[in-house]
Amino acid sequence: MKRAVMVIAERVFRDEEYQTPKAILEAAGIRVTTASTTTQTAVGKLGLEVKPDMLVADIDAEDFDALVFVGGGGAEQYFDDPQAHSLAKQFHEEHKLLAAICIAPVILANAGLLQGQLATVFPDGEEALTAGGAQYTGRAVEAVGNIVTANGPDAAEAFARQLVEMLR
């Protein structure tokens, strides 16, 4: 069974960017674990309450096939987080699926993982993506190699279906 870990912010993660991919991944038989910087209840922008299963600090790439960063304003807590960057680099180096939606692709750009690569992000993040060396496309979903980026809540379903396809 394939396993994915979804990383959410403690506050103001985007509810539907978490719920929709999680449901689609699970329906495809992929086991989903939720991680954050706390195991206390995290609260989404629209009020969704989620009790993370584990801490980001405890994620071991050996245990998962995919790392997914969920967007929403709260994802900013990971933009310059050395631990998040290290984790993303580890998944990438091990050719495991690395994904980010909404504003979260900024995490990947800041980690140096989008150099010269087609990528998308919520429009507010375009400048950060290009500063990180990415070629911003503005498309709903971009998949290049083992990295998938998506531009926001409207892309959540297509993003999740791309993840499922790549995990099969």
Q: What's the arrangement of strands in the largest beta sheet?
A: 6-3-1-7-8-12-11
Element-level helix/strand string: EEHEEEEEHEHEHEEEH
Query: What is the highest CATH level, the class?
Result: Alpha Beta
Q: Examine the coordinates and then state which fold CATH places here, giving the name of the CATH topology.
A: Rossmann fold
**If you compute it from the alpha carbons, what radius of gyration comes out, rounded to the nearest whole angstrom?**
14 Å
What oligomeric state do the depicted chains represent?
single chain
- Corresponding CATH architecture: 3-Layer(aba) Sandwich
Helix content: 25-40%
Sheet with the most strands, sense and barrel status: 7 strands, mixed
Roughly how many Å apart are the termini? 10 Å
Number of helices: 5
**Which regions contain 5 or more consecutive residues with pLDDT less than 50?**
none
Written description of the protein model:
- The protein has 168 residues and is α/β, with parallel strands linked by helices.
- The longest helix has 13 residues, at 15-27.
- The protein has a single domain, classed as Rossmann fold (3-Layer(aba) Sandwich).
- It contains five helices and twelve strands.
- Strand 11 and strand 12 form a beta hairpin.
- Helix 1 (15-27) packs parallel to helix 5.
- It has helices spanning 15-27, 82-93, 105-110, 126-131, 156-167; strands at residues 3-7, 11-13, 31-36, 42-44, 49-50, 54-55, 66-69, 97-101, 118-119, 135-136, 141-144, 147-150.
- The strands form three sheets. The protein has a seven-stranded mixed beta sheet with strand order 6-3-1-7-8-12-11. Strands 2-4-5 form a three-stranded mixed beta sheet.
- The protein is globular, with a radius of gyration of 14 Å.
